[in-house]
Amino acid sequence: MHNLTLADLDQVVALGGGHGLGRVMSALSSLGSRLTGIVTTTDNGGSSGRIRQSEGGIAWGDTRNCLNQLIAEPSIASAMFKYRFDGQGELAGHHLGNLMLKALDNLSQRPLEAVNFIRHLLKVNASLIPMSEHPIDLLAITARGKKISGEVAVDRLRELPAQMKLSAVVPATHEALQAIADADLIIIGPGSFLTSLMPLLLLDDLTQALRHTSVPIIYLDNLGRELSIAAANLSLRQKVIMMEQAIGREKVINGIIIGPGVTPGSISERIVIQRPLEAVGEQHYHDRDLLRQALDFILPLLY
């Protein structure tokens, strides 16, 4: 379809973790309510991990990070939501946004209601949906059969695990599945490959929804080398194959956008766009305008 742009689409769905997904959604925020983010909820580190340890529930950090990047109008509510406690006390290091989401979760029938309440409070039009409303952790099994539990420990692995799975079989959030079914375009990434992107693709009904989609799926690769040694050593081809094996369909990812530092390698029958995407003064972060332009460029080539 000639000259098709993001503005022509009725529903765009992006999948990922906090920093990467937040950046994609802020780049596409002009789509308003036509934009939906499906957020990883398996984090067990930092403020999120501490709240989960004491109170249970899903991890809120990635959702908070996305909301922070989508705030267009500064307000007292947004200042509170972005506030982080410092010092040495019990609250040191906690993000007030995580605590607000957890408190609202306790007051709500379900976690998605807490997200929607905060969205309205912060005047965020795009939808954000936790990948699952059931608390789960990421598990990795090493080549020697050792079980590694939790995102923090998985990120420390020096070698790629032999297997990755979730700590329990849980359903994806119904609204997330509906968003994928209604989507005109699906975007995966950028983000920590093993701990932000792969957890989403370990949810059976979510991968089933992706497997059956007829719309283009674009993978946005990271701009910098990952901190995780195991993930940093993966080639672009390996990452695409791992994602497609998890989804259960070959060549389901048909568009790939990479920065200049990546060697595309032998990725056949995919449309690969390579261009400078880094934001000035923000190493390894995508520039919002350049990212949107890259998506607008690749879109007509996929339809």
UniProtKB/TrEMBL annotation:
Identify its protein family. Answer: Belongs to the gluconeogenesis factor family.
Could you give one GO CC term from the UniProt record?
cytoplasm
Q: Which UniProt keywords apply?
A: Cytoplasm
Q: What is this protein called?
A: Putative gluconeogenesis factor
Q: Where is this chain's protein located in or outside the cell?
A: Cytoplasm
Q: Which Gene3D superfamilies does this UniProt record tie to the protein?
A: CofD-like domains (3.40.50.10680)
Would I find Cytoplasm among this entry's keywords? yes
Where is it chiefly localized?
Answer: cytoplasm
Q: By its UniProt entry, which Pfam families does this protein fall under?
A: CofD (PF01933)
Q: What does this protein do?
A: Required for morphogenesis under gluconeogenic growth conditions.
